[in-house]
UniProtKB/TrEMBL annotation:
Organism: Spiribacter salinus
GO terms under cellular component: plasma membrane
UniProt name for this protein: RDD family protein
Presence of keyword Transmembrane helix: yes
Domain of life: Bacteria
Membrane-related topology note: Multi-pass membrane protein
A Pfam family the protein falls into: RDD
Localization per Swiss-Prot or TrEMBL: Cell membrane
Keyword set, alphabetical order: Cell membrane, Membrane, Transmembrane, Transmembrane helix
Span of domain RDD: 10-156
Length: 171
């Protein structure tokens, strides 16, 4: 049974990771669609072949698409599809629904959490960096997600919490 803090059950790490995996699949599909929208504008050329400025603009565009997805889900209903599947809900520390500034803080804090892992994965092919730095960075990543007793540092930084949604009992 999950611990209850101020009347709200806190999810464990496995439930959070399962939700994250589900949302990763959705975001991957979303990014593929966002890229497909641009292909007619580039005559089917890969964005990096268009130059450094185009590459940076493309990456900023993809980041904005991902932010729009999470912000819309968190503001509209307090949960993404992955969170819904695993009965998770995101709220502010005082259990209020998120607004746009709350969603932006949560996204920015989570982005800080992902940055070291992403850098290791992107540069991992160089000199076996992934073999040496990957495990400690992955361990820090998992530890920073938080526990049932203590929220992750990105949640503390953003003032938000992931909580369990109560089971719906049919009448």
């Amino acid at each position: 049974m999950a611990p209850v803090h101020s009347g709200v059950a806190t999810p464990g790490l496995l439930r959070r990771l399962a939700s994250l995996l589900y949302d990763t699949i959705l975001v991957t599909a979303l990014l593929m669609g966002a890229t497909a929208v641009l292909l007619p504008l580039t005559d089917g050329e890969a964005i990096p072949s268009l130059g450094r400025v185009a590459t940076i603009a493309y990456q900023a565009y993809l980041l904005a698409v991902v932010f729009a997805f999470f912000a819309w889900c968190w503001i509209r209903g307090g949960q993404t599809l992955g969170m819904r599947a695993w009965r998770l809900h995101v709220r502010t520390a005082d259990q209020a629904p998120l607004n746009l500034p709350d969603a932006a803080r949560r996204f920015g804090a989570a982005l800080l959490l992902w940055t070291p892992l992403a850098l290791i994965l992107l540069a991992g092919h160089r000199a076996g960096l992934l073999a040496y730095a990957g495990p400690p960075v992955a361990a820090l990543f998992l530890a920073s997600l938080g526990t049932r007793r203590r929220p992750g540092w990105h949640e503390r930084l953003s003032g938000t919490r992931v909580v369990m949604t109560p089971k719906h009992v049919p009448d």
